[in-house]
Amino acid sequence: MDGGRLAGVLFGMGAGALWGLVFLAPEVIRGFSPLEQAVGRYLAYGAMSALLVAPRWRSLMGLMTPRILWALAWLALTGNLFYYVLLASAVQMGGIAMTSLVVGFLPVAVTIIGSREAGAVPLRQLAPSLLLCIAGALCIGWQAIVMPGTGPVAARLIGFFCAIGALISWTAFAIGNNHWLRRLGDMPAQDWNFLIGLATGVQALLFLPVVFLLGMGQHDAGAWGQFAMVTIAVALLASIVGNMLWNRMSRLLPLTMVGQMILFETGFALIYGFLWEQRLPTLLESAAFALVVASVISCIAVHRRPAADVTATI
């Protein structure tokens, strides 16, 4: 593997470690609704983005065409607000392990779409990685739906479908964001991240009246303090630093490999979840985790082959 792709993998691993915290946050502040958590996180993300992008705002304003503004709006809504509401709902109803491994299906969708790009690794070469990913998801699906759990089956089913919704939302964002990062090659990746943060912050402000209308719930000062710390930490670590690492990775790796890198998020989310619950993984969860790791390794191995070798096997 050349230096650029190695750096891309390391950036992907770092982003996964920080994004894994997103799956833990809904459990830490379980007393708050998914919408409250999403609005709180993205208000903080928007404020941080505004401060960080302010020195370059005039130069960036010259690039803001209606098409780019529309792209920022739908990426912010799809990949941030909608995604996080669905993910937090899935975690609270179905658990961290189930949610993280359902979202782990992302590489399958992104890889299939990415295999249509010119110069991409052919889908046939990625088949072992995809099959390993699917096998891991089947393990966790059986664990979450069929095996005995702590909550009602109906709640776990709703959580499962929320996780599928989060997967669809995140897949659309991953593909769209990768497209715009490549199209705007002259714009620094961190500036694009901050612009998405600004768009998400504005949208969070628009959703704030909905939060008040639905009722904020009864929380003491300690709960609100914890809520503020968690949402600010997630905004900084996941939305700012994690997205920055992911955007840098996206410019170094082909789209088929970008999709596989999301599995690092799955692995770290599982580790955080088991530490939080103070338990060891079940046999099915262990098998799923092993299959996820094998899927990433097999994908990297395919991309290490010389281009002529890959082409010859089409």
Could you walk me through the main structural features you see in this protein, from its secondary elements to its overall organization?
Mean pLDDT is 82; it is low at 306-314. By secondary structure, the protein is mainly α. It has helices at 3-19, 21-28, 34-53, 57-61, 66-94, 96-103, 106-114, 123-145, 153-183, 189-214, 221-250, 255-277, 283-304, 307-312. It has one domain (3-312).
Give the structure's gist in a few sentences.
The protein has 314 residues and is an all-alpha fold. It has 14 helices and no strands. The chain is globular.
Whole-number average pLDDT?
A: 82
Give the assembly state of these chains: single chain
The residue fraction in helices comes out at: over 70%
pLDDT below 50 for ≥5 consecutive residues: which ranges? 306-314
What characteristics describe this protein?
single chain; disordered C terminus; mainly alpha; 314 residues; globular
What order do the helices and strands come in, and which of them pair?
Elements: H1 3-19, H2 21-28, H3 34-53, H4 57-61, H5 66-94, H6 96-103, H7 106-114, H8 123-145, H9 153-183, H10 189-214, H11 221-250, H12 255-277, H13 283-304, H14 307-312
